[in-house]
Automatic annotation (TrEMBL):
InterPro entries according to UniProt: Amidohydro-rel, Metal-dep_hydrolase_composite, Metal_Hydrolase, Metallo-dep_Hydrolases_sf
Name of the protein in its database record: D-hydantoinase
Similarity remark: Belongs to the metallo-dependent hydrolases superfamily. Hydantoinase/dihydropyrimidinase family.
Taxonomic lineage of the native organism: Bacteria, Bacillati, Actinomycetota, Actinomycetes, Streptosporangiales
Keywords: Phosphoprotein
Function, as annotated: Catalyzes the stereospecific hydrolysis of the cyclic amide bond of D-hydantoin derivatives.
Domain Amidohydrolase-related: 53-431
Domain of life the protein comes from: Bacteria
Cofactor(s) listed in the protein's UniProt record: Zn(2+)
GO terms for MF: hydrolase activity, acting on carbon-nitrogen (but not peptide) bonds, in cyclic amides
Gene Ontology cellular component terms for the protein in this record: cytosol
Pfam family, one: Amidohydro_1
Length: 467
């Protein structure tokens, strides 16, 4: 009888297309069988009866540059079932990196972190107006980095690029086989409104919302799509918050000759701008939290395939850092979230009747794996990496800072309790979360180099057309 390292027994294995009762055998970090295991014995057997067995979650949008570094971000992810992260890095002093070439930043980051975090990681690289994508993109692709971010916001932080620089950068990315991600807000409009109030003390919290209007986001989404379409660049719009943006994307997809993929985040699905009014800077993110109607439209878009990916935009902050600045406009952006990604999507989405279990697996695992070229991830199939999550539908998860595995000492979702509990997280065959308890050794995560489009097919997610 053959011996394997681990068998996950008696659970329901879930993919984007089916749910089937099956055992999963794991050996030397890979899945070696999905199905009957009567002829196998294992060093360890995990009883998953009554539980959902999911592929390890991929958080395609993280910023491990503030209170959380990559190790604590990955640790928090493991606590919530996330086994792979894609981190944004850049030659941005505001993110804690030196203002050198982006390829040099990437080299140093990979050298520092390969093998150290609990989960595997890939990288996105962001550019500002000082970077030259024509020089940097080929260098970064040689390093296995194939997705690149631009900002149409944050002129005060030196991160915004104007439309001419943006379309030139998009053309470079598209020709090289990359995917461009663009933060879509009207930075000049926001800056105009904020500048008049920037040094005013004790501003009311609603000032931030008034300066980041709904249409400033929706307009920028359409503008960015039009620029990408003009130069043939596949486009990824991260962290969509405005429900009207869905209509704009639908309009553009009917005529655009490039694929346009959309991401939203759990906070845009379950929170509203009442949190900003109530908690101020603790809930300050960009784009900002919107209205209940936006929540509903985004949930519908996740369910029907208009939105392909749900990531967190995780940016761990502390109470002390959020208190910086003379008013809410000067307070820093960002909030934690990776720990709550799967619990919220299951508890508020699946258990809440807003989307199916299969659809949740698509947007949290299969779609990001296909889009960002992580071929060993995203599915429970023979030969894939043994990254699994065992989710107990009868358990419950309380969102509270007291339980954070990351560095944030406050919780964006404090006081919320949802159905479902992550019981076990398995990464590369190692049980890193064992009945809710994190392992002592949370290292070993690998850097994942990726291929550009042209060396692999353009992914078709949820029917989004390809050129």
């Amino acid at each position: 009888m053959t011996t394997v390292d681990l068998i996950v027994q008696g659970g329901t294995v879930v993919s984007a297309t089916r749910e089937v009762r099956a055992d999963v055998a794991i050996h030397q970090g890979r899945i070696v069988r999905v199905g009957p295991v009567d002829d196998l014995r294992a060093t360890r057997v995990i009883d998953a009866a009554g539980c959902h067995v999911l592929p390890g979650i991929i958080d395609a949008h993280t910023h491990p540059v503030y209170a959380d570094d990559l190790a604590s971000t990955a640790r928090a992810g493991i606590a919530g079932g996330v086994t792979t992260t894609i981190a944004f890095i850049a030659a941005f002093p505001s993110w804690g990196f030196p203002k050198t070439g982006p390829a040099e930043v990437a080299d140093a980051y990979i050298a520092e972190w390969d093998g150290r975090p609990a989960g595997d990681f890939a990288l996105h690289v962001a550019f500002d107006s000082h970077d030259d994508p024509a020089v940097e993109v080929p260098e970064l692709i040689r390093r296995g980095i194939t997705s690149f971010k631009f900002f149409t916001a944050y002129p005060r932080r030196g991160m915004m690029v104007d439309d001419r620089s943006l379309i030139a950068g998009l053309e470079v990315v598209g020709k090289a086989g990359g995917i461009a991600a663009v933060h879509a807000e009207n930075g000049h409009g926001i800056d105009f409104l904020e500048s008049r109030l920037w040094d005013t003390p004790d501003l009311p919290n609603e000032t931030f919302l008034q300066c980041h209007t709904h249409l400033f986001e929706t307009e920028a989404v359409l503008r960015v799509i039009s620029l990408a379409e003009a130069v043939g660049c596949p486009l990824y719009i991260p962290h969509l918050a405005a429900g009207d943006g869905i209509e704009v994307v639908g309009l553009a997809r009917r005529t655009a000759r490039v694929p346009v993929w959309i991401e939203t985040c759990p906070h845009y699905l379950v929170l509203t701008n009442d949190e900003v009014l109530r908690r101020g800077a603790l809930s300050k993110i960009a784009p900002p939290l919107r209205e209940t109607g936006d929540n509903e439209r985004l949930w519908a878009a996740v369910a029907d395939g208009m939105i392909q990916v749900v990531g967190t935009d995780h940016a761990g902050r502390t109470l002390a850092s959020k208190a910086e600045g003379a008013n809410i406009l000067q307070a820093p952006f960002g909030a934690e979230g990776i720990e709550h990604l799967l619990p919220l999507m299951y508890g508020e989405g699946v258990a809440g009747g807003r989307l199916s279990l299969r659809r949740m697996v698509a947007v949290l695992a299969e779609n990001p794996a296909d889009l960002f070229d992580l071929p060993a991830k995203g599915r429970i199939e023979e030969g894939k990496d043994a990254d699994l999550v065992i989710l107990d539908p009868d358990g419950r998860t309380a969102c509270t800072a007291a339980d954070h595995a990351g560095a944030s000492d406050y919780c964006l979702y404090e006081g919320r309790e949802v159905p479902g509990r992550v019981r076990h997280t398995i990464k590369g065959g190692r049980v890193l979360l064992d009945d809710g308890v994190l392992a002592d050794d949370l290292t070993g995560g690998r850097y994942l180099a990726r291929r550009p489009l042209g060396r692999r097919p353009v992914p078709v997610l949820d029917g989004v057309p390809t050129p």
